[in-house]
Amino acid sequence: MRLFRRVMIAASLALGMVSLGVGPLGIGTAQAQYWDKPGYGYAPPPVYYAPPRPVFVPPPPVFFAPPPPRFYAPPVYYAPRPYYGRPHHGHRRW
């Protein structure tokens, strides 16, 4: 019995606040009718269902061609050198 009275008192207080226009319903906060609502083509700006911001991905590295090789000296041959004294060379062969 006491629970029923508490529920009734709470309901009457809630309905009283609704009738005063304090809650989500009331005198000044009526449900908008179809002439107050925007058309079917209307959509709010896509703020709440926009995709998340992408994670920052650094740009790929750019590789440049190495400079051409520089010539400092003729190549070194580690081989026996030809013999330019006689025979086979010079003005007196053999």
> Approximately how much beta-strand content do the residues carry?
under 5%
Helix/strand/pairing category: mainly alpha
Shape: rod-shaped
Percentage of helical residues? Answer: 10-25%
Main beta sheet strand tally, sense and closure: none
DSSP, total strands: 0
Low-confidence stretches: none
Mean of residue pLDDT values: 78
**Helix-strand pattern:** H
Distance between the termini: 143 Å
Query: Whole-number radius of gyration?
Result: 49 Å
Continuous helix count: 1
Describe the structure concisely.
This protein has one helix at residues 2-19. It is mainly α. The chain has a domain at 1-28.
Description:
- This protein is an all-alpha fold.
- Helices cover 19% and strands 0% of the residues.
- It has a domain at 1-28.
- The chain is built from one helix and no strands.
- The longest helix has 18 residues, at 2-19.
- The model has no long low-confidence stretch (mean pLDDT 78).
SSE topology sketch:
Layout: H1 2-19
List keywords for this structure.
mainly alpha
